[in-house]
Amino acid sequence: MAHPNDKLARLLRTQPAKLDFLSALSEADRQKLAGDIEQARQAHSKHIRGSMEEALNQLPWLLRAPIRKLFGV
Amino acid sequence: MNIDRDTELRRLARVLHREPAQLGHLAALDGAGLMKLRTLIQNSLLEEFAGLFEKIAASGKLAPDALSALLCRKVFGPSITANMSYYVPADRAARMCKHFDDEFMAEIAREQIPERAQEQLEKLPVELMRGVTRQMLASRDYHIMGGFTDYLPEQKAMILMEEIADPADSLRISSFAQRKDRIARLTAKMDDEQLKRLIEAAFKEPAFIHEVGLVTAQMDAKDQQRMARLTDAVDPKHRATARREAGKSGTLEALQPFFAA
Questions:
Q1: Number of structural domains chain B divides into
Q2: What secondary structure letter does DSSP report for B115?
Q3: pTM of the predicted model as reported, rounded to 2 decimal places
Q4: Which residues of B fall within a CB distance of 8 Å from A59?
Q5: Within this chain, do residues B101 and B2 fall inside the same structural domain, yes or no?
Q6: Angstroms from A73 CA to nearest CA on chain B
């Protein structure tokens, strides 16, 4: 059976049981929180990827592909 | 540690790119719950790219500090440098910082999670932090400064307080710091004139009255009595205002020596 904190646990990269302190929140509140976290995650991801692109653009063109491969970006 | 809920809500709102008023759906969580949630969110964001930051940090392991610092400034930029810093030994990170200017250091600090940067804060010479403090005051990054205040060695915090000329700024920073006990110890070390200026600034805004109340509540009886004497010197009516505020925020009991003085 699905745990009520499954979605939040996935977003927070943790175990549902570790989110028991969120049981004070209603299902609707948890959904809203999940939306907040997802949005923050997307903004963070965009920011880091953008910073990495900027960094790669500072390098000579020939070096970019091997460095991309080396760092897995 | 006594977790102040409003302080934690402000910090969580920053992490979520929201205003505190937009987080009404978290009303059922107390300060400790909000803090736990914020820490989990910050760690999960960092973990998403942990492999990348670790690889970047490892790739510069053998390079001289000056060269690594140059790469950070010219290639990686503040965001990647900040995230990578958690995977660089604190001694080396502190040495690399000597090659950064104040502006770049401030940009790094804006991206860091203070809890994770604690060891670096211990190793970093306080002289390098002065410029960062000035930069952050100029850019009104009170939420960042408040977060760092919780983890900065107290001796360093004391020295950096010299950079804060406007007492209202001290209160703004304090409103984002969770360790009010530390703020209370630092505040108690101020001289009478500095404290009077702080009290004067505090009673100009309701949010500041609340903040100075939380800080005073963490002081011992002797320091609370000193605060009471200085509050009366600024304006004898202020203590009645403070009592009303303390009644609302539930700090009346902790502030007993202040009101009894």
A1: 3
A2: G
A3: 0.86
A4: 75
A5: no
A6: 8
Domain boundaries, chain A: 6-13+28-71
Interchain contact A46–B (C-beta under 8 A)? no
What residues contact residue A8 under an 8 Å CB cut-off, 6+ apart?
A16, A19, A22, A30, A33, A34, A37
Amino acid at B199: I
Which residue range forms the structural domain that includes residue B16?
1-48
Looking at residue B86, which CATH number applies to its domain? 1.25.60
* Minimum CA–CA partner of A25 in chain B: B28
CB atoms < 10 A from the CB of A39, how many? 13
Q: Is the pLDDT of residue A66 over 90?
A: no
| Residues B157 and B177 occupy one common structural domain | no
For A36, nearest residue in chain B (alpha carbons): B16
> Hey, CA dihedral for B174, B179, B185, B186, is it positive or negative?
negative
Are B48 and A45 an interchain contact pair (Cβ–Cβ within 8 Å)?
yes
- Please check whether residues B57 and B157 belong to one and the same domain: yes
pLDDT surpassing 70 at residue B1: no
- Residue B59 contacts A where some CB pair is shorter than 8 Å: yes
Average pLDDT, chain B: 94
ipTM of the complex: 0.89
Q: Mark whether B65 and B141 lie in a shared domain.
A: yes
Confidence of residue A1 (pLDDT cuts 50, 70, 90): low
Asked if A70's CB is within 8 angstroms of B59's CB, the reply is yes
Tokens 């880091």 correspond to what residue?
Answer: A48
